[in-house]
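re the bet — no i am not wrong, look at it urself. input seq straight from the record:
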Amino acid sequence: MGGLKNVYAIGAGMVAAHTNESATSKSVYFAHCTSEMIFITHLLAEEPEKLAGPLLADTYVTLLKGRNAWYGQMLAKGEISRDMGDSISGKGMIQGVSAVGAFYELLSQSSLSVLHPDEKKPVAPVELCPILKTLYKILIIREQPSQAILQALRDETLNDPRERIEIAQSHAFYRPSLLGQP
């Protein structure tokens, strides 16, 4: 979960900046991003950690005030730019940016597929992670502005976070081949 919380913390910072710290918007984001995190960990870990107790508390703090959240907030406010790189003076390395690219590429592999809950057809796992896809478009390929994170939350085709968690918990998703294991 460590790398994932940094990915989603950047988006949390963007949501906070674009909504003037709206508690409702941040809670909607939290529900969706944690469901994506649970889904992804069920793909990548044979025995995924439960997002509860100290891990949940650490994730919550990271999403609220960690340096990756700060980075997302400053990007959204226009106080820093992607052109400044991932190493920010006084903050250090912002790991979430490179992790967005790594997780996106990993979950986009053509050899992987999961059944889409609505369309009932196989899709790459990243297709069930709209926040990750949006962060990739904002941070890596730079084809969308940071406000796109809000649109990802408003997308009417967005799956209910509970469905994503149920998919993850009701199927044997673990794919050792994702991480190069036999």
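see?? DSSP finds eight helices and four strands in the chain. told u. also The chain has a mean pLDDT of 85. so pay up
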